[in-house]
Prior knowledge:
Two copies of one chain form a homodimer.
Chain A: E1 2-9, H1 12-21, E2 25-38, H2 44-47, E3 50-58, E4 61-72, E5 80-87, H3 90-99, E6 103-117, E7 120-127, E8 131-140, H4 145-158, H5 171-176
Amino acid sequence: MYEVEVKVPADHDAVRDALAAAGAEEGATVEQADTYYDAPHRDFASTDEALRVRRVRTGDTEDARLTYKGPKVDTRSKTREEIETGVEDADDAGAILEALGFSPAATVRKRRTYFAVGEYAVVLDDVAGLGEYVEVEREVPAADVDDARDAAYELLETLGLDPADQIRTSYLGLLLE
Amino acid sequence: MYEVEVKVPADHDAVRDALAAAGAEEGATVEQADTYYDAPHRDFASTDEALRVRRVRTGDTEDARLTYKGPKVDTRSKTREEIETGVEDADDAGAILEALGFSPAATVRKRRTYFAVGEYAVVLDDVAGLGEYVEVEREVPAADVDDARDAAYELLETLGLDPADQIRTSYLGLLLE
């Protein structure tokens, strides 16, 4: 599966009004802390890959996930191959990576609220040190990437946002800039 | 914590009798399939490290764990630093490792039965392609490694086994020989 994901900077108050008008369903609000790792044998900045340990706090529950993101397969959106599994203990997962020679590069912290609009997730991100963003995302098979990306642009317009404002740089990249 | 682990080849029927006489408590029997990975940037055979995805089937339940084993810190036993975390999906964990350039080297399959004798776990392993082994193991802080290893040797003798038969080669190593 490929993740189609389009991100724009956006004032959350205005977007919340548009989401309500569009009949969007509000989901959970979570705190995410994403630690990205450098590899000992590849320059992820050149290969356009990423390796991440994500800690997610939802109310009193804390979950962790290990994620590999492959290079972008589409220059118009940020579509990548993504492989992910839950891990029991984020600290142990990080310690295994460090023992193998990977090193923590930076940690991105954000407060994220999910909305569902049809097949799409609309997420409102408040990113520490960066500000407010909206992402529209959906996982689809490779054959459906083009259609899903076009529909994501239409959804952004429905929410009063301009797809031309799309930012292809990751939060990690923006923080490191 | 360090894992003190002593392994000898042993006929399981005889050891089961000795365990019963020693008042050992029989625990679970599980099927384990351990896939070991080669690294793209280090020769684990030279560095004496290991990276493993373990699938464990207990009755109808399947669990998976990701484990890093550091070099042996003790030439007399097989003591190593071990870092481990449960993973939600063994296939996804393996796919992440492969995307990062690690490659599956071999898979060790065994049927393992646990017994508890005091602070020690005594495990009876029936390893596909290798035969029957007994391992005595315990996790201890670094300062207690010497004492724990001596006590493991004594326990082996109590079970009618000879510590001099100790095999320091891993099942993976034995299979690859």
